Amino acid sequence: MYENYNVVKWSWENEIGEAHQPKNCVKCGKCEAACPQKLHIREDLEKAQADLDRKEMIR
User: Any idea where the domains of the chain sit in the sequence?
Assistant: First the structure.
């Protein structure tokens, strides 16, 4: 959001918790069906998890 990968990654790992990470999505599609903006949530969650799984920090 603020182009600060390190802060986002730290927050994700330390504040959100393991159970609520995108990798736990079962891809049922309920969120997309309910989304009034018709976002591709399942696809976006996969992209977010891939970014967060990167080992290196971005500066």
Answer: 5-53
pTM given for the model: 0.71
As a whole-number percent, the residues of the chain with pLDDT over 70 amount to 88
Provide the 10 A C-beta neighbour count for residue 3.
Answer: 7
CA angle 58, 19, 12 (to 5 degrees): 20
Smallest CA-to-CA distance from 52 within 29, 20, 27 is with: 20
Structure tokens, 35: 């989304």
| Per-residue H/E/C for 18-51 | HHHCHHHCCCCCHHHHHCCCCCCHHHHHHHHHHH
